Amino acid sequence: MSKKPLTVGSLKENQPTQMKMSPPQPMEPPNRKTTAQPLIKLKQHDRTFTLTPHSGRTILDCALSQNQPIDYKCGKGNCEKCLVKVVAGSALISPPTAIEWSKLNKRLAEGFRLACQTKIN
Ligand code: FES
Fold first, then answer.
1. Mutate-to-test residue for ligand 1 from 78, 103, 104, highest number of ligand atoms within 8 A of CB
2. Taking the domains of the chain in order of start, what are their residue ranges?
3. Which residues have C-beta within 8 Å of that of residue 53, sequence separation ≥ 6?
């Protein structure tokens, strides 16, 4: 038996003296989850409008501020010129106003709203 003292290095056999390093790998960007902001989609005549909702504003105000040319006239709920059909994002808008109930009645169930009267929650 050898009286040679054991060291950490003496127990390893055939180990390379240098660690082999793999070439640097390109780093991937951190996994950022993008949470898409919900949008409101409207149809008026044959045109479709997509709005980024802004709480407390009417659909009409929001559309015009985002360069979405919704037709309108009175802005008071009288003319129905701003009539739109909400095709997406109805959960983001307020319940119909009394004016909308009187003007639209059964059309409300089909998703029609007056853009000048409908507020965004
Ligand atoms: S613009 Fe006249 S009802 Fe909305």
1. 78
2. 40-114
3. 37, 38, 39, 40, 62, 89, 92, 120, 121
End-to-end CA distance of the chain: 86
Among 15-24, 43-52, 71-80, the minimum mean pLDDT is found in 15-24
User: Is the pLDDT reported for residue 11 higher than 70?
Assistant: no
Of the candidate CATH numbers 3.10.350, 3.40.50, 3.10.20, 1.10.10, the domain formed by 40-114 belongs to 3.10.20
Give this prediction's pTM: 0.72
Q: Which atom of ligand 1 is nearest to the CA of 114?
A: 4
75 lines ligand 1 (CB under 6 A): yes
- Token readout for 116 is 């000048």
**Does the C-beta of 77 come closer than 6 Å to ligand 1?**
yes
> Rounded mean pLDDT of the chain?
86
